[in-house]
## 1
Amino acid sequence: MKIHYVTLLVLVLSCCRQETTESDYTVFTNVTLIDGSGDAPITNAVVVVSGGRITAAGPMASITYPADANTIDLTGKFVVPGFINSHGHVGDVKGIEGGHYSRENIIENLSIYARYGITTVVSLGGDKEEAEALRDVNDSVPGQRARLYIAGEVISGKTPGEATAVVDKNRSMGVDWMKIRVDDNLGTSPKMTDTFTRPSSKDHTTLAIRSPHTCTI
């Protein structure tokens, strides 16, 4: 048996393409809803969308919506919440080729994530100034792309001073957290000690740490 999954974000996007009435409501019917709460899947469920937002979801018998709503039958399909990529890198790659970092490519990468049902991306390093403005629109992000959270440049350096300069640059960008690489990056840089972590931890910045071993800050 072939099982189809549809994310809630994809449903929101679909309503923009498939509306055939003047109603502000699009209702997806006859779905199996997995709401992410840990409860059992809800069969014969409906999802109600208005203004690009999900306004109601649950068993068909308990959900009301306007009689003139545009309805889309999703019999045989499953609806799940949007997925979160908690460790990604955005903006540099086209296909499998790197070196393409730009605002346009960030948007394209986030659009690809959205089409695969990933609604939020945590970018852990390699983020430049072009990403800052896109991160700042998370509360009003268009439905066509995933939301973005950034870490800025990965903190590294041969001296504490070099690492501190990276921290200061990231802080000026207003990053959501910072990433420290304490391994040797496959032999391409010296390993970092706790001396390097202090500039970023003293102001209570959230740290993401890449290390082959457990470490304490």
## 2
Amino acid sequence: MNFVVALNAEARPLIDHFSLKLLNKKSEYKIYTNSSMYLVITGIGKDNCYKGCQYLHHTVKECSDTWINFGLAGHRFLPVGSLRQVNRVCDKQSEKIHYLNCRFEELCETADVMTVDKAEVDFSEDHLYDMEATAFVDICTRLSSVERLQCIKIVSDNFINPAVRLSHSVIYQLISEHFPIIDKLVEKWRH
């Protein structure tokens, strides 16, 4: 299982929870691992996500065919801390659309993601907003089948709570409170 995460602040709770250890110290893309999963920190944006996924795939010979894009997203009105599986990914610039297979809706509600090139503050449509999901799906459908791809997003900001108020400790808490559900999803994705 391969987690693809943009920021260290998003990765840290996963690293701690799954007891991941740093695999490479001198690379542009840090990879963490334990006996059953890998995590790559790609940096923000589509280009970084694309290159980070490629780097993980080419660096790790025993790379899994299950890929999970995990991270924070903004939304117009969903409460901060809401967890969602992504069922549709849209790119605002290219208008390209990808559909994902959300098999475990009983564990986690679903939502669409709109991938944007710069941080969204208007939230003009009823989507989650991120900056990596379309690149994740573009590259990972070349490395695996779309059935083995998942995107999980946690709402970090909305009209009432702008992203500028986020600290590392707040991000850690937002993610950590969902580990009971994340653990169940991870177990199901392994099969």
## 3
Amino acid sequence: MSSSDYKQTNTIAAVATQASETIAVRIIGATERLCLVIAGTLLVGLVLSTTLDATLRYFLGAPIRGLLEFTTDFSMPMIIFLALPSCYRLGGNIRITLLTQRIRGRPQAVLNVVVQIIVAVTAFLMTYALLQQLVRNFELGSMRSGAISYAIWPSYAAVFFGLALTSVMIVMDMRNAASGTAGTFAGDVE
């Protein structure tokens, strides 16, 4: 293979890789936005149902049966974890930059990479543990008993999906950690 053929092959491979990464980023971005819409819809429903519950409790002495359990065990975890990918993209997570602000150059790049690896490993370990919980609850048909009974696996599924999506976003941002740039998914935020 001649030098020009090798360069042309590398160029084609680079363009194909960049195109597939762009498609992946678009799919992940669309999925993240869908998760945010679902979380927002659940939040509005939660606010309305809680308001209705308080009104019924105060005026009629008849609260909505099982709303507290449904809210704390079902709705709130779904809202939090389906919104997590958007929170990551917006840089809304708490970051302790006391050390990284004082270090410059190569040591800062190394520290950024190490921290990103620790975050990615932690996120994937949490995702894996949650997947095991989801499968166990689904297979056992686990139900939440109280004022009302309902399956708890859908809540685990939403939490798993939100955390898994965030984990993928964290890994895709790893290449930006060394340069200290905002990341693949944080392009619209400073």
